[in-house]
Amino acid sequence: MPEPLPERDELLRIADACVQCGLCLPHCPTYADTGIETESPRGRILLTAAMARGRLPPAEADRDGALSHCLGCRACEAACPAHVDYGRLLRLGRQVLRRTMPPPRWQRALEWLLCHPRWLAVLLRTGDRIRPLPGLRSRIPPPPTQPSLPAFQPAQGRPRGRLALFQGCVASHWERDAHHAALRLLSRLRWEVEVLPAACCGALHRHGGAADRAAGLSRHLAADLRQRRLIALVHAGSGCHEALREAAAPLPVHELCAFLVRDPELDRLRFRPADARVGLHVACTQRNVVRAPDAERVLLERIPGLELCAPAPAACCGAAGIEGLRDPQRAARRLTALRDWYRAQAPDVLLAGNLGCRLHLARGLAPSGAMLEAEHPLAFLVRHLA
Ligand code: SF4
Ligand code: SF4
């Protein structure tokens, strides 16, 4: 008789909440692609429960990648009438899989690099010779060269309170436009902002089942936050939202667009007109984890004359954490319908709040190996600030 899994009770508690109604199935992109029950949320819940009960060994539960293929988009969770905590089930299930089926070397190297953001930028600048990450540079452009962020941004006028801006690991280099834009906007709205040092929240480690490393990163961030006197933590990446929310608790955590769109002082600001057609991609995590699917659109609508196009309903682009790196062909197939839609719309620029989605889309939508112009919605918005 095998030893019970440490995650057994929690996995079964979550799985037992599923009433097998199937209402989540039409929302699941992998089920839409395959029509196979084991590639659906309901099927994955059953497989995970069987694994937790010791009836299926992990390798058998994940046969043909049934559990590994899950994109973690959480569309099933948002649609579930029984409020099944699918995100937690997925994380715990991946922990179990990882113990018996260690990830490839390149994934472990990437996870290490994310914990060391300076090394990540240096290595990516050196080109395609990074042996543990073959071909990565051809899929990811070098980071932009904007100056680093100040440690503190004062409020313009009487401060309303002090926020912390989480700049992340990869995002501390690749999202500088968005972070500079956020500081400018927040300052105009009379928020003081402390900028946290570059660090990883552990979201990708959680997604890949590396629970210990994720917990270490979470503790590190929590210790840093405890030393500061803040009213909230803000960030520009919906993919980090849940990891940050758990690390920072009880400090409130807000994705920046969701935070700004609710700020009544935003009405004081004016934006210059833009004669542009803009494609907007709303990430799965913005819709299903932050649960602010309209925040980016509503903010951008403050720019007079802007023509916005966004697919309805919004769809997963396939980037899905490291899924786009782990299985590029599958991720590219996932992108096909979205790519055709955006190409038909012919936007001048593509806006996407999630860095992983943006890089994946910019590469997939551009013709023959080029990158389409793409940026964070906040960077675009602030360039039109009057
Ligand atoms: S996860 Fe929720 S929506 Fe899906 S089958 Fe179970 S109870 Fe129904
Ligand atoms: S998280 Fe997304 S891909 Fe995974 S089962 Fe749920 S809907 Fe399907």
Number of helices: 21
Low-confidence stretches: none
Q: Which CATH architecture of the domain at 269-383 would you pick?
A: 3-Layer(aba) Sandwich
Secondary-structure class: alpha/beta
Task: Note the run of SSEs as H and E.
Answer: HHHHHHHHHEEHHEHHEHEHEHHEHHEHEH
CA-to-CA gap between the ends? 69 Å
The percent range for helix content is 40-55%
Largest sheet: number of strands, sense, barrel closure: 5 strands, mixed
Q: What is the overall shape?
A: globular
Q: Would you tell me the overall average pLDDT? A: 89
The overall strand count is 9
> Radius of gyration, Cα only, in angstroms?
21 Å
Describe the protein.
- It is a single chain.
- The chain is α/β, with parallel strands linked by helices and 386 residues long.
- Among the domains are: 8-100, Alpha-helical ferredoxin (Fumarate Reductase Iron-sulfur Protein, Chain B, domain 2, Orthogonal Bundle); 269-383, Rossmann fold (3-Layer(aba) Sandwich), CATH 3.40.50.
- The protein has helices at 8-16, 29-34, 41-52, 58-61, 75-79, 86-100, 105-114, 117-125, 136-139, 171-174, 176-188, 203-207, 211-226, 241-248, 256-261, 284-288, 295-300, 323-326, 328-345, 355-365, 377-383; strands at residues 152-153, 161-166, 191-195, 232-235, 253-255, 277-281, 307-309, 349-352, 374-375.
- The strands form 2 sheets. Strands 1-3-2-4-5 form a 5-stranded mixed sheet.
- Strand 8, helix 20 and strand 9 (374-375) form a beta-alpha-beta unit.
- Helix 1 packs antiparallel against helix 6 and helix 13 (211-226) crosses helix 14.
- The mean pLDDT is 89.
- The site of one iron/sulfur cluster (SF4) has 14 residues, from helix 2, helix 3 and helix 5.
- One iron/sulfur cluster binds at residues 18-24, 41-42, 45, 76, 80, 82, 84.
